[in-house]
């Protein structure tokens, strides 16, 4: 299958705020070392709750990174997103004024909004009255606030948007940014996703899924594909990427690109009884078709890795259906940070880009014996080295959302 030149969209900058590091370098070094970012909740007393572990960003001082005027009007999630966006633009060496403020846009994803900010202001409303509620409550809680605040801070007046699709949303935001560039509506797009919802109100919303691990030992809590898997561990943070039209990126002076986004697809799970392939399998096949690739071209899959036995079995079945038994190495870096909702997919794309760059697949941690129907070629315990040129990143959101992104090394 031939590839259209319009699919060549480059990643030129990375920004990361993750439980295992601020910035792509710290995140990557910790990931290769199998470092653990999952620990008991620290923001409030978790004892009354059924689950007590989370992937948390510790030691983050927003005042050290952002202007003081932004602090009263932003939730923690927006502060993390602003820091990741700043990192990505600096990494790309992108001058928005030179590129054209209306040629640069922002598309992000968020699944939970500004929970901590909202909870605090609602408590004021109930206990002190409406005159004590911050005027910034009107937008600080909203899913689109990260896109808005990033756009305002960096004077990016081009195309903007937000995608809400739970864990799949971050990859869908990347797909939307790519389409925006391919349609000639922007030269540069900031895209990705960041999450943080670890106040009591937000924590209860996680627990309502019924799929959160109740384990108390971080080493045994989040075990995708493992026969002991009993649920996932929520995490906070994510990643923001700079995406550019290929010719424009090569024409300007800046850093060499990390790679290319050459394929994307989104699907919904079929309704029960509908004779259609599973939604995740279809997303994989459609993303590969979009990239003009056959399955044997893929060197690495960064898995959704739900940590829920039924969902792990579904993902393993989809991978076997497309790639054959043990047909492709599988990576699960989420075992170190938890499931970051909309932030998880973009962070996995960062992992894929750095894996392709360095020729190394990071290990999943704490995984023991795989369940019989979960068997895939999961890289665990130690990094696996070798030449890598193409990666597939997968994400699924509650309610039947599926998303897949194809990442390739930059053309020489």
User: Could you tell me the strand content as a percent range?
Assistant: 15-25%
Largest sheet entry:
12 strands, mixed
| Number of domain units | 2
Please give the CATH class of the largest domain: Alpha Beta
The number of helical segments is: 12
Q: Helix-strand pattern, N to C?
A: EEHEEHHEHHHEHEHEHEHEHEHEEEEE
For the CA atoms, what is the radius of gyration?
20 Å
Give me the count of strands: 16
Query: Which percent bin holds the helix content?
Result: 25-40%
- The appropriate CATH architecture of the largest domain is 3-Layer(aba) Sandwich
CATH superfamily of the largest domain: Thiolase/Chalcone synthase
Arithmetic mean of pLDDT: 93
Shape, per Cα inertia axes: globular
In short:
By secondary structure, the chain is α/β, with parallel strands linked by helices. The chain is 31% helix and 20% strand. The strands form 3 sheets. Strands 1, 2, 5, 6, 7, 8, 9, 10, 11, 13, 15 and 16 form a 12-stranded mixed β-sheet that branches. Strands 3-4 form a two-stranded antiparallel ribbon. The chain has a two-stranded antiparallel sheet with strand order 12-14.
